[in-house]
Specification:
Strand order of the largest sheet: 5-9-8-7-6
CATH architecture of the largest domain: Orthogonal Bundle
Structural class: alpha+beta
Oligomer: single chain
Number of helices: 23
Distance between the termini: 40 Å
Number of domains: 4
Radius of gyration: 23 Å
CATH topology of the largest domain: Endonuclease III, domain 1
CATH class of the largest domain: Mainly Alpha
């Protein structure tokens, strides 16, 4: 318990509470306060037990609020973010967010990073762009008017940020309402070769196919199978959608694959500032490629537990062939959560899926199908709520939860603890004698916050640079 407390491990919050003799305060294991010596710490099964022993609640981690399911600090931050997203023009800059929050600037930065895996500035810019996106599809008002409504000072600033985050101009995005084809522009430093390697990681996939520069995949959009085809170029990606009414949703899927919303430039600057320029050398524009849907990411995370990528791909193919929907040209649509929820775990055993994994797959799918685990909605909420919801699912440990959060939900400050590729990358980067354990991984990755998901993507690539 002391090891988990010293590591600040949030997975143990609520499983025990710590009392510090020198201060008379009891805390959650994840409390950010300075950790005391072991001899000054006592452990309690509940807040009541800690209070009975004469300790009082910490004002930094609020253990009583956590124990009863309340989290007023998180709720305050969520309220602020909801206001920014609803009315971005009401916040002229980050200082306006600080004034509205009631926190100091440093504290607000810390809280937004902790709960939303972003900086206040990035969050505000994205809120402005998303406001314009919604307006572009809702009416025909001039772009200048939409920019002003969202809080952009000039059209040029809107264009710059809109194109950076979406790969399209605002007018091109508006045209998605009536087209089956569109072109996404890539940043000049985007490493298309790495994207190609990621998309083609399973050369035998039955739901997607990479042939030269053409990538095709059958994905679920509102449960309906849709074929999305990409033509990869160094400067752009041409996209074609089988269903003419699904270009807007297809653009969202393509953004997950490309990861354009991630702030690769900011992470590259951070790496250089830390004296770790070799981590981003020759791939400063790298983004973490996400999954087409949140449910697909959940399946990957369960199937991939403690096995090689090759075997995980094999299990995924078998699952799709068994429960997916034939689409044509030898491709299948992945199964829906409702389909997997409707079987018994024993039916997956002939696919060489272990009984334990089969149980996890079916149990998690039933939660998704019933709405108890609203995966798609978790994308838009706080990372803290998403993490808590996922940790409550049987079979999802720290590795699985962080994998789902960064590759399926798009959160930017995740660390898949225990990941072999990550620990091997850290060992090579910091020239360690052995691969770091979970606590050492957490400490080493701490310097990259709030961009630890991007740091993970770069560390995964180190094996190719060192080969």
């Amino acid at each position: 318990m002391y090891a988990r407390f010293a590591a600040g491990d949030p997975a143990w919050d609520g499983r025990f509470f710590t009392g510090v003799l020198t201060t008379g305060i009891y805390c959650l294991p994840s409390c950010k306060a300075r950790k005391p010596k072991r001899e000054n710490v006592r452990f309690f099964p509940s807040c009541e037990a800690a209070r009975a022993a004469g300790f009082r609640a910490c004002r930094k981690c609020h253990p009583d609020d956590f124990a009863r399911g309340a989290d007023p600090v998180l709720e305050d931050v969520e309220t602020l973010v909801a206001e920014v997203r609803e009315r971005p023009a009401a916040f002229a800059d980050v200082r306006a967010m600080v004034r509205r929050s009631g926190f100091g600037a440093t504290r607000l930065f810390e809280l937004v990073r902790q709960h939303f895996h972003a900086t206040p500035h990035d969050l505000l810019v994205r809120a402005r762009v998303d406001h314009v996106k919604r307006a572009l599809l809702a009416d025909e008002r001039p772009l200048a008017e939409l920019a002003l409504d969202a809080g952009f000072e000039t059209l040029s600033v809107l264009h710059e940020n809109f194109r950076r985050l979406n790969g399209l101009t605002p007018n091109a995005y508006r045209e998605l309402r009536d087209t089956r084809t569109f072109r996404v522009q890539l940043p000049a430093d985007y490493p298309v070769d790495i994207l190609r390697r990621t998309l083609g990681r399973d050369p035998h996939s039955v739901s997607e196919r990479l042939e030269g520069d053409r990538f095709t995949a059958v994905v679920r959009i509102d449960e309906k199978p849709v074929l999305i085809a990409l033509r990869l170029n160094n400067s752009h990606v041409d996209v074609e959608v089988s269903d003419p009414g699904q270009a807007i949703a297809a653009h969202r899927v393509v953004m997950h694959w490309l990861g354009l919303e991630q702030n690769a430039a900011a992470f590259a600057r951070l790496a250089r500032k830390l004296g770790l320029a070799r981590l981003v050398k020759a791939r400063e524009g790298l983004r973490l490629s996400g999954t087409a849907t949140a449910y697909d990411g959940l399946l990957w995370s369960i199937l991939g537990q403690q096995i090689t990528v090759v075997f995980a791909c094999q299990l995924r193919r078998r699952l799709i062939e068994r429960l997916g929907e034939p689409f044509g040209s030898g491709l299948y649509a992945p199964p829906t959560a409702a389909t997997v929820a409707g079987i018994e775990p024993e039916e997956l055993l002939p696919l060489q899926i272990s009984r334990q994994k089969a149980t996890y797959l079916v149990t998690a799918s039933r939660l998704v199908a019933s709405g108890e685990l609203p995966l798609e909605r978790l994308r838009d909420g706080s990372a803290t709520r998403a993490e808590r919801a996922l940790l409550a699912v049987r079979g999802l440990g720290p590795w699985s939860v962080n994998y789902v959060m960064m590759r399926a939900l798009g959160f930017g400050d995740c660390v898949p603890l225990g990941d072999t590729g990550l620990t091997s990358g850290l060992q090579a980067l910091f020239r360690l004698e052995e691969r770091p354990d979970a606590d050492a991984t957490r400490r080493l990755m701490g310097v990259f916050s709030p961009y630890r998901s991007l740091a993970t993507a770069h560390l995964w690539q180190l094996k190719y640079s060192l080969a």
